[in-house]
Amino acid sequence: MNRLRIWLIPGLLVIIALSGLVFFRGRIPQQEQPTPKIPVAVVKVPSKPKGFAKPVEPSLQEKASGDADAMVEALNTGNISDCEKITWNEEMRQQCEDNINYATILNNDDEKQCDELHSEILKTQCYDKIYLNKAIDQRDVSLCEKITAPDLKQMCLDQMQMIVSHSAKSADDCTVIASDALRQQCEDNYYLKSSAKTLNIESCDSISDSYLSNQCKKTVTSNIAAIEQSKQAAKNATDTKELKEVVQLCDSLAGPKSTKCKDAIYPRLAFDEKDLSHCDKVSSESAADECHKEQGDKINEYYLRQSLASRDKDLCNQISDNELKQFCFNS
């Protein structure tokens, strides 16, 4: 019993001590344990630029290439607004505008617009070209004197001399021509035309060129003869009505004789009525072609003679041969 007490007393003391320890532990405030931190990766967000970012400026080669392409495009379109696409070379842009304006100004034929050009050289050329065109159109030799380029001025004067030499209305008109050869040619042309118009064979002697003088006399003689022949033909000509009656008589003939008879009449009808459609009635194709050529030439000569005799230029329009028609108008 005593042994039991000996073990019981220490056990109670231990229990009491543990109970006290537990009691006091609950009364003492516990320190919170810190939560472990997990490392977070930091991402840097780029800051926004203030305003707009500057574009990268092209290289000198890129600038030159871009302006050259814009120049070609503007010249191809002929639109002056396309010259604004030339952004780096101001001189090239002005050249582009000048090239397009230059062609437009020359077409307008207005020298005042030449001042709109940037290039002084092109501006001078613009004035010279317009003076040249106006001098020729207006046949005004004084405009040639306004041309500054010596070669172009001489060309203008030469052109005017050639025009005057073929259009002089009197021998005095030829005196403005500086070249002796051209002035003589002008006078010869005048005497040739005036002799043909007036049928004055003596005027042909004023022509210095012997060959042209002989041609003049032949022309005058031929014209005088043609007029006389026309007058005689008018008196002796067979009436067209009678020719048509002959055609009807031909129909009364038998077979080939009828055809041969009419083939002989149709060319005469073609000339008398000045109507080559009668040649188409000829039975033979080769004879019809010959009728067209022969009677066509006669009709052209008829209208030429009538024009020269009556001095009626409207008759020249009836001539089918272009070269002969031009000769008729110039005579």
Question: SSE layout and pairings?
Answer:
Layout: H1 2-27, H2 60-77, H3 90-108, H4 120-138, H5 150-167, H6 180-198, H7 210-236, H8 240-251, H9 256-272, H10 285-310, H11 322-330
Helix pairs in contact: 2-3, 3-4, 4-5, 5-6, 6-7, 7-10, 8-9, 9-10
Integer average pLDDT: 77
How much of the sequence lies in strands comes to: under 5%
Query: Low-confidence spans: pLDDT under 50, at least 5 residues?
Result: 37-45
Could you describe the largest sheet, including whether it forms a barrel? Answer: none
Task: List the secondary-structure elements in sequence, H or E.
Answer: HHHHHHHHHHH
Q: Which secondary-structure class do the elements indicate?
A: mainly alpha
Number of helices: 11
N-end to C-end Cα span: 181 Å
Count of domains: 3
Task: Tell me the radius of gyration.
Answer: 55 Å
Helix content: 55-70%
Topology, number of strands = 0
State the shape: elongated
Kindly summarize this structure in a few lines:
This protein has 331 residues and is mostly helical. The chain is built from eleven helices and no strands. It folds into three domains: 103 residues, no CATH class; 54 residues; 93 residues, no CATH class.
Q: Could you characterize what this model shows?
A:
The protein has helices at residues 2-27, 60-77, 90-108, 120-138, 150-167, 180-198, 210-236, 240-251, 256-272, 285-310, 322-330. With 331 residues, it is mainly alpha-helical. It folds into 3 domains: 62-164, no CATH class; 168-221; 238-330, no CATH class. The longest helix has 27 residues, at 210-236. Residues 37-45 have low confidence and may be disordered.
